Amino acid sequence: MSSIRDVSSLAGVSVATVSRALRNPQQVAEPTRTRVLEAVEALDYRPNQMARNFRSRQAFAIVVLAPDIGNPFFARVVRGIEQVAQRGGYAVLLGDTQGSAAREAEYLNLVRSRQADGVIQLSARIDPVALGKLWSAGSAPAIVNACECADTDFCPRVRIDNVAAARAMSEHLIGLGHRRIGVVTGPAASPLTRDRLAGHIGAMQAAGLAHKPALTIEGDFSLQSGFDAAESLLHAANRPTAVFCFNDEMAIGAIRRFKAAGLSTPADISVAGFDDIDFARFADPPLTTIAQPMEVLGRTAMGVLLDILGGRRSSSETHVLPTNLMVRESTASPAA
Amino acid sequence: MSSIRDVSSLAGVSVATVSRALRNPQQVAEPTRTRVLEAVEALDYRPNQMARNFRSRQAFAIVVLAPDIGNPFFARVVRGIEQVAQRGGYAVLLGDTQGSAAREAEYLNLVRSRQADGVIQLSARIDPVALGKLWSAGSAPAIVNACECADTDFCPRVRIDNVAAARAMSEHLIGLGHRRIGVVTGPAASPLTRDRLAGHIGAMQAAGLAHKPALTIEGDFSLQSGFDAAESLLHAANRPTAVFCFNDEMAIGAIRRFKAAGLSTPADISVAGFDDIDFARFADPPLTTIAQPMEVLGRTAMGVLLDILGGRRSSSETHVLPTNLMVRESTASPAA
DNA sequence: CTGAAAGCGCTTACAG
DNA sequence: CTGAAAGCGCTTACAG
């Protein structure tokens, strides 16, 4: 592979001139520039990006820490991230942590060792302040926390209003006439669970209804955990007439389990989800859910990171993106 | 951030010794090594990987070209790739091409510009031979083609036997008593479509049945396209009693459409999928499908790439991984 | 507008 | 076992 040196000798100029002709064309005289470009063409020369990055102390890569890329929600957020990263000239290193702290640490080493310039963290698992230590004193930590956000304003955050979105869904259910509403949450430690639960409880209280802890089952956002949670609910002393699942997979799993028990949705039991992944629309019945702007979440997060990386921003604002209650066919008034 | 120079002065040795103490500890005397390690500790020194990579002309990163990371099938293959990449010390750059040739080219530039050492191509869209040109004459192109494979043995391939798997599914359907079987394929240009169709037609002919082109609809592997294909099938002169969809999403979309038309699966019409993504098991009814070893496909592909990168292999063998016919509840004998 | 030179942070023959 | 030196392929002040 030819190097800048080969081009410079073929064109009869110094390597500095070649470098300039490529990076700041207006700095070199037209005839010289042409000569250089011809040599580049003739040799099929490509600047060695590794050398360039090394020189400029930038990796032009970011790592995204995702709990599970197999989850369609995260897959779409990552897609959004990638779109703007590519436009901005950054590569995205995939850090699928699968809940392993060791893998997470491994990925964070990519920034410690200067292989990545920044990180988008799609979970609140790591303390952003600890994360910030990865950057040397002088420079602003290039971190953005998206989707599942920590309770700090140490770094910019991009998220939805989980409390309000969950409240909207519960109000929908209550409006339909439901009084006993089951809930299938995410992991207890997740801020997502806490916020959505707060929204739900708020709606219940505002309607003068009691929130029943016995009808609140902890899931892990998987289809199977929704299935299992439904089973618990089936055995509850006073079975709920509606179940609010904190993501679509769990809702789909729950509907499946209810059906196996002879309960049809929504005639016998209403089931609602959260996220609005593609499968929600094609579920049977089509799922009532909260639509999250998945790609936009990703694009926004990457946009903010690009700003930080470009020195155009360093404050730690929070972006709250709008959600939408999608009423479809999995929820209805309870049977009389 | 401290550099190797800082460590060397603190430890009172040359930078060469620091480098050795870190990379080939047995090459330096025990007391010296200890001194170096203490200095490393004291300064919280981390070797600059970018410098190291630049020096050694290796990026320790590979790019995976995936048609769509939002597709659970690819997401899981990528997860498998990532697992072994991380163990092997490689980062994975995500190249979600979304069918755009421009984006694909953009990602391939990562290897031209030496930011990636190899590529795993999850589609047959690019001619591997053209791809191979990215490598300079002397060195072996570090490419592996997985899942959707081209008809060349230019590079190693990791795949399943699509013909046999599709034949097995069609035999299952035929065995159930179906005579008119509809097919929802992937894009016509895809080798996946061609092979699975060949398997299906082979099974039909072996059973003395005619394959009806009118009952073969082209889809694009999305839920929506399965839905739309089902609609076409509904209007067919002689409606099929079973439909073989070339992936699970399309099967789920088709079942949805049939149900909307008042046809229930499998009582009125059997529907089969392909892949066995998580949603297949939780579909309503649970989907009869072909299970592909998604993670293993990814892990194998990355293993082969690691071998090539490590100079341990260069031949272009093909790995054919086993599949499994999963008979669940979406297929049954046709109504009498 | 152009070139000579320094240097980014490492690694690795080459001596000793 | 250790050090001085060269060099990986670029970019960028600094002169001219």
Structure report:
2 copies of one chain form a homodimer. Chain A has helices at 4-11, 15-23, 30-43, 49-56, 72-87, 101-112, 128-132, 162-175, 191-206, 223-234, 248-260, 278-281, 294-309, and strands at residues 61-66, 91-96, 118-121, 143-146, 157-160, 181-185, 216-218, 242-245, 270-272, 289-291, 318-321, 324-326. Chain A has 336 residues and is an alpha/beta fold. The first copy, chain A, has a 6-stranded parallel beta sheet, with helices on both faces. Chain A has a 4-stranded parallel beta sheet with strand order 7-6-8-9, with helices on both faces. The longest helix of chain A is centred in the first third of the chain and has 16 residues, at 72-87. The relative contact order of chain A is 0.12. The model of chain A has no long low-confidence stretch (mean pLDDT 93). At the A-B interface, helix 4, helix 5, strand 2, helix 6 and helix 11 of A face helix 4, helix 5, strand 2, helix 6 and helix 11 of B. Chain A binds a DNA duplex (16 and 16 nucleotides) through residues 3-5, 13-17, 19-20, 23, 27-29, 32, 47-48, 50-57.
